[in-house]
Protein: Disulfide reductase
Organism: Sulfodiicoccus acidiphilus
Amino acid sequence: MKLAYYPGCTAHGSAVEIDVATRKVAQTLGVELKEVEDWNCCGGGFLDERDPVGHAAINLRNLSKVEKMGLEKMVTPCSVCLHSHRLAVHKYEEDPVLKEEVDKRTQGTTVQYSGKANAEHIVWVLLRDVGLEKIKAAVKKPLVGLKVATYYGCQMLRPGEVMGFEDPHSPHSLADLVAAVGATPVTFPAMTYCCGFPLMGSNEKGGLRLAYNIMKGARDAGADLLIHPCSLCHLQLDVTQVKVRDMFSLDWTMPAIYATQLLALAFGFSPEEVQLGRNAAEVLRQKGLI
């Protein structure tokens, strides 16, 4: 299976472990990821509000490149990038005024989007195109005894008519993956809440409080660690967790790892090979899983 691959800015920068683990999981499962050449930032989370036409144009530029590759599916590990591209396509198809403006802005450029290509999340591809049975067959080190909170965030799920993969009010895709590798999925009320990352530039305390709600919700549900499907959630719940701990004077941690890092560990890759964080590695060590 050959798919166009859009890592997004964060997975090529401050959260490169997401890119590393995603490529290892894909290779293990026989999925060829062909990175889109000269891709641009999706502008998700800010440009779509300030300049909807520009936002649609730059996302359709990426998808037009996918079509030139002879492909129609562009997979990304980032929920914000997923949301941004799918929202751009939806608006382009449903809003004739915006479509006319986008066509004017891209006239004379190399952007030629026919409507065939769209973005999908790597979690969707793993479940729908690869399948749970193949994933289970690739497991070499079942993560038995590990309780994993499944945090979906908001961008991969909503709006449901644009995302279209699962019920945004009762998702289970991550729980299915967790169970497939032998671990125990843990659901909790805040699993579809925003992580607070979009607030960090304007209201840092508010953003950190939202992150705390996720962490505490997972802890109260009895989880050992949590997994998520988003590069920006990764920054908020992993890298920024130190700030959350300081703000709330916490004496505990809730390790947050990307979904494909968990799968890669079960497939036999070492914590070092998937660049697992120190706190997550310590949890696995205490469980006797590494």
Remarks:
- The first strand starts at residue 2 and ends at 5.
